Amino acid sequence: MKIGLIGLGKMGLNLALNMMDNDIEVVGFDPYIDKNLKNKHKNIVFKDSLKDLVSELTSPKIIWIMVPAGKVTSDVISKLEGLVDKEDIIIDGGNSRYTDSIIMAKKLNKKGIHFLDVGTSGGQAGARDNACLMIGGNESAFKTVEPLFAKIAHKDGYGYMGKSGSGHFVKMVHNGIEYGMMQAIGEGFDLLENSEFDLDYERVAKVWANGSIIEGLLMRMVLNAMKKDAKLSDIVGRVDDSGEGQWTIEEALKLKVSMPVITQALFSRYKSKDDNKFAEKVIAAMRNEFGGHKVYKKQ
User: Fold this and answer.
1) Is 178 a known active-site residue?
2) Structure letter (DSSP) for residue 241
3) Mean pLDDT over the full length of the chain
4) pTM (2 decimals)?
5) I need a surface site. Which of 49, 176, 222, 230 has the fewest CB within 10 A?
């Protein structure tokens, strides 16, 4: 099997290496890739244009896209439309919004081109060895590509979710859950930090990562971070969000589903970026006005 892979960043490159480990030929394209990387990974057939990449593949052509969601993804697919043939398969493995994937599938289907929306989880390590894949789209196209999914995914770590958009929808909800889990872990360590005990956080994380109810990939990642810097002294407590949490909450509002934990986790991320802390200033001023409580002023 030969796959065209567009986007060889952190996730895309690791997927490519995973594929090659499983006897899948990879034809890659990324206009921003470093020349040293090309020299280092000579087993990947690098092409200088989308046209050259497509011409290297045999029908039905399978092209996997791993580029930033939104305009970048839609631009790449628009360019591919004029290069591929009927029955060829385009895979979006990024974090596209599921509604965009539904629109894209309808657009490509009119031309006889199959589209699979594939939510990809497991981080860089998963992409490299055992990916977790949530797949939506045309079922016959899924069955064509399934041998690839089976080779690069964790055992039982891939599945056909249903019609177009379902793969990215399931991944969106997955990421919303991830927000809540990460927030809970962070708050737990915050309480440890403020306790009377002189705790070794690397040791705590090691114990929690082995046999506890909250063990798992996230806790192992905490352990890895603590090994590098037990107090995380070089890290600024600013947490960005890539959109999936917001999309999850928007769907919850639309469907009238209660999601207080995920909502609060997203708001906590927003608050972490607030250097001005104006809300806290207003609260401090109110407490001073009604109760004469102390106000701390800049020195």
Assistant:
1) yes
2) -
3) 93
4) 0.91
5) 49
